[in-house]
Design brief:
Helix content is 28%, strand content 36%. It has one domain: START domain (Alpha-D-Glucose-1,6-Bisphosphate, Chain A, domain 4), CATH 3.30.530. The protein has helices at residues 27-35, 37-43, 115-133, 146-155, and strands at residues 4-9, 15-23, 47-50, 57-61, 68-76, 80-85, 88-97, 100-108. It is an alpha+beta fold and 159 residues long. The protein has an 8-stranded antiparallel sheet.
Length: 159
């Protein structure tokens, strides 16, 4: 199981990183992992609290930092979760796929110099999500591996 990552545009036409990953789990299980505090906090590198509703918020508390309150900008269970975080728009969509689910993530690009780091970070998170859905503990550290960042720097280069 791997994550497909490419440069493209979000639904409003803004430059974005586009991620696609298939999970052999029902859409409802993946949705719960995106919207339930305890599940989200297991695969995302912050303590997360979700007021899962249209107009709700996502509160992220990274180790050693102040909690960030992020507005939920789109909410259509169990298909869509969108929010605006650190100057970027993130849109998570889930589609049923046989006995599994296809997750698509669009992350607009606020700082082009940081694109490879963002891609590596989400790749790591989506791998950790797979572990949690499988009932395993995530194996990654709090930051993406520098080798993965370099991989994405080369893979996403537009030179």
């Amino acid at each position: 199981m791997s994550t497909e990552v490419r440069l493209g545009t979000d639904p409003q036409g803004a430059p974005a990183l586009l991620f696609t990953r298939r999970y052999p789990h029902p859409r409802s299980a993946v949705w719960n992992a995106l919207t339930e505090d305890d599940m989200l906090s297991r695969w995302f590198p912050a303590d997360a609290r979700v007021d899962a509703r249209e107009g709700g918020t996502l509160t992220l508390a990274f180790p050693g930092g102040e909690p960030e309150v992020v507005p939920i900008t789109g909410f259509d269970p169990p298909r869509l979760l969108a929010f605006h975080w650190s100057g970027e728009d993130l849109r998570w969509t889930l589609e049923e796929d046989g006995r599994g689910c296809v997750l698509r993530l669009s992350n607009t690009i606020d700082d082009p110099e940081w694109t490879a780091n963002t891609a590596a970070g989400w790749d790591t998170c989506l791998t950790d999500l797979a572990a949690v859905l499988d009932g395993r503990a995530p194996e990654s550290g709090p930051l993406p591996d520098e080798e993965l960042v370099e991989y994405y720097r080369a893979a996403l280069s537009t030179d």
